[in-house]
Amino acid sequence: MNAASSLPPILARSEPAPSAPREAFFLAALALTDFRTYPRLRFELPAGPGLIALTGPNGAGKTNVLEAISFLAPGRGLRAAGLQDPTRWGASPAAPGQRPAWAVAARVRGPAGTREVGTGLDPVATAPERRLVHVDGTPARVQGRLAEAFAVQWLTPPMERLFQDGARTRRKFIDRVAVGLDSLHAERVQSYEQAARERIRLLTGPAEACDPAWLAALEARMAETGTALACARIAAAEKLDAACLGSRGPFPGARVAMAGEIEDWLAQGPALAAEERLARALALARGRDAATGATGAGPQRSDMAVRHTLRDQPAEQCSTGEQKALLVALVLGAADVLAAARGARPVLLLDEVAAHLDRLRREALFASLLDSGAQVWLAGADREPFESLSGRARFYAVAEGAIEPLP
Ligand SMILES: Nc1ncnc2c1ncn2[C@@H]1O[C@H](COP(=O)(O)OP(=O)(O)OP(=O)(O)O)[C@@H](O)[C@H]1O
Ligand SMILES: [Mg+2]
What is the DSSP secondary-structure string of 189-248? Predict the structure, then answer.
């Protein structure tokens, strides 16, 4: 029996999950400056949420548009790019003494009304390089303020390796859900990783430069932020698990849970006890960590475990097609979780999703997206896979730094 024939018939949900709101975040206008292939793009969008299909030849700049939108959330965008990478090659600085810098601005509508949000590379600061964030014309130091004004979830071709890649990729996936639930999560992760890097630098550097008090302070910070971020990941995974439990038409149900030593500690006792255990484990592991140059204990050892409920097996043991269906289910589930937490559906960015699904799943996905009331950006080289959306989605042609509406 092949995988497809064992799946249930289409039961495309006509209603979103009961807790999922009908309201949605959506972009009403988007402006890119020196962002990858776009010297300057100003783009007004149809009023209200709905499906937007970007088509155009390979290399036209479709993914670049989705990436620009993904920068309206904390983090490094859907390509996990370096901060300078999106700056258009050959761009000129805006003022003497500055360096060329990309910028993305958007008018965003959500439950709290209309917000003008903007972000980009700081053209002045170089060491360290910085990302600037503006919300309603006010500079925001914390990327978290972006997360409050907007919510976005994406699915891109590299994510199809989610279940084959290392655990780091899966932790990044659950981190994005956690950031949507609590915008401080991104800072916690950053603070933990910074302290962990600094600790390894001390441990692997000259012995006389390794100040024990500084080392202990770093480990205390790692224990505190590490436990807090593990708790946030567990909470996000529990919500994702509940949202993904049932199948969505041809997309299977999934069980999701964080798995690792720190999760075991947190299951056994209070968070404070887990924090103390982590601090002890770090202190005990100094010799080993100095030798390996890596942190042996803590949340960076944990994984997001996903099971295919129909197959009743771990995602990594599923077929390629089953994994794709599972990934779509996870992304739709994550969108439901964000929607319930934020009171409005996140914008969805789906890159090349149509080309990678069979017709049955593609049509079920479109039906569910149309039903959801979300703003969904679909990108694909050819129009053909989107043909059934004619009259139900806005089509745009992308070419040479411009976007033109199609009939
Ligand atoms: N910083 C940059 N400045 C200018 N161009 C860039 C920059 N970074 C990437 N590019 C160019 O952007 C183009 C890729 O754009 P994009 O990935 O959006 O294409 P696409 O339309 O999604 O194509 P495909 O259908 O192959 O996925 C490439 O030609 C690449 O060389
Ligand atoms: Mg692309």
Answer: HHHHHHHHHHHHHHHHS-GGG--HHHHHHHHHHHHHHHHHHHHHHHHHHHHHHHHHSS-B
The CB of 55 under 6 Å from ligand 1? The reply is: no
Whole-angstrom distance, CA of residue 100 vs CA of residue 332 = 37
* DSSP 8-state class, residue 93: P
This prediction's pTM: 0.91
Closest residue to atom 14 of ligand 1, CA basis: 59
- 381 Cβ closer than 6 Å to some ligand 1 atom: yes
Q: Whose CA is nearest to atom 18 of ligand 1?
A: 61
DSSP letters of 297-316?
Answer: SSGGG-EEEEEETTTTEEGG
Return the residue whose CA atom lies nearest to atom 25 of ligand 1.
Answer: 58
Architecture of domain 170-317: Up-down Bundle (1.20)
- Whether ligand 1 lies within 6 angstroms of the CB of 295 is answered as no
What is the pLDDT, as a whole number, of residue 198?
97
Residue labelled with tokens 């890159």 = 351
The whole-chain average pLDDT of the chain stands at 91
pLDDT 10s digits, 220-250: 999 999 999 999 999 999 999 999 999 999 9
Calpha distance 159→172 (Å, rounded): 11
Residue 14's pLDDT band, with cuts at 50, 70 and 90, is: very low
Q: Which residues pair with 42 in a beta bridge?
A: 31
Residue 109 has pLDDT above 60, yes or no: yes
Give 355's pLDDT tier (boundaries 50, 70, 90).
Answer: confident
Q: Go through the chain and tell me how many residues it has.
A: 407
Q: Is 380 in the pocket of ligand 1 (CB under 6 A)?
A: no
User: Where is average pLDDT lowest: 157-171, 301-315, 326-340, 343-357?
Assistant: 343-357
In degrees, to the nearest 5, what angle opens at C-alpha 150 toward C-alphas 144 and 156? 100
Which ligand lies nearest the alpha carbon of 91? 1
What's the 61 CA to ligand 1 centre distance in angstroms? 5
